[in-house]
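Render this sequence as a predicted structure.
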Amino acid sequence: MFKFFLLLIVGFVVYIGTIKYISSDNKTQESYPKEIIVDDKKVNIIEEDIEYENQKSIIKPKYHTDNRLKDEIKSLFEQANNFALAQNYQEAIKIYNNIIDKLQDTKDNKLLKSFAKAHFLKAYIYRNNIHDNDEAIKDYNAIIEKFKNSDDVSLLKLYYNAQTVKAYLLDKDEAIDIYDEIINKFKNSNNVELLKKYIYAQYSKSYLSNTNDTIDIYDEIIDKFKNSTDKTLLKELASVEFSKARLLNDYLKNPSDAIDIYDDIINQFENYDENEFKQVVANALFAKSYLLMKDNGEESMEILDELIDRYKNSTDKELARNFEYSVINNIELALITNNDDTNYRDLANKYLYEKADTKPQLEMLEILKNAQEDNQDEALRTWEKKYKDYKFEDWSFEELQRWNNDMENSKEKNRIKRYLNEFIKHDATLNPVQYHDKNSTK
């Protein structure tokens, strides 16, 4: 059975403090930071803001002065980069300090970004080459103080970047304090980008909190954005709702409340035409079906039937994949619940049977179905020969094992267990890292 809860319900991940250095020959080196990843997107602190455009100015002397300064700053960055590539970090730091001094009082937006860039690059050297986090924090603090009262969104995003990387270097309580600062600063903003930063800070805080506090954080985000009309924020809202549902089911063992959240997601987004929201609804239906499988296989199948009807003719790749998952899972559920699988087999023969990733699954389920009545040794040998290199990606044998363990006919039970163990062993051999002991039949 496809593990849709794991495969499709993707919680938000906040990446903090990962900086890559790129040399002039495009080989990775520990010297020149090109980008810093502080949320779901890479924030380019090197090239994005250093395109020095020629700006016309009525006051020609100022125009020339500004451009001379920008050219000088650009040259200084190149010199610092060369020193960093040569691992002469102290000389690189001296140049970054020179840049910082020259730009300390500037009001020019692009030069302010260069000011931040110099601090970020200097902090990187302290963190990763000199291994002095205290000095790195001083640079992050300089950016924070410089931009915390700015009205410019691009500068406030640099403030956010500095705060989140700084938080990564501190202990839990200090980091939570930083996330609270960001939350309080951006929670009343009208800017979508800054509201996204508010959400990311809440997420980061939740990772450092206990389960109940995390639920409270999710509820705060949900309450804030549940009536939003901005589709960017609604996508973030859906992610939070999925995260809450997963927490309720996986950690608090409360599938009923998790199902209620999936129902809320379905009701909230089912009338949106965009494929990304259709995918949100499909994910919620999948997750709900998954949670119902153990105790209510019939209802689980009905939900998958709905997905089949919705996406049978979809031309969108992801939505069409939902159709495939639903057909295969209903073939499996029909086996487990002793229901007729004719309609699902017909759909599989029409749409899926020649697909390299689904055909082995369908043939495996056919072997297990037929094993209820007869020996399937020859069919198994044929399967193993045809698919000796096939990997079960994102597949769980848990429901099949439960079905097998609940069988009353010992002869049938042992025969199916033998074949099921062969498929599990095949999975373990080709997916040793991903394979878990829970997939072993007892």
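Summary. Residues 8-208 form a domain with the Leucine-rich Repeat Variant fold (CATH 1.25.10). Residues 60-85 form the longest helix (26 residues).
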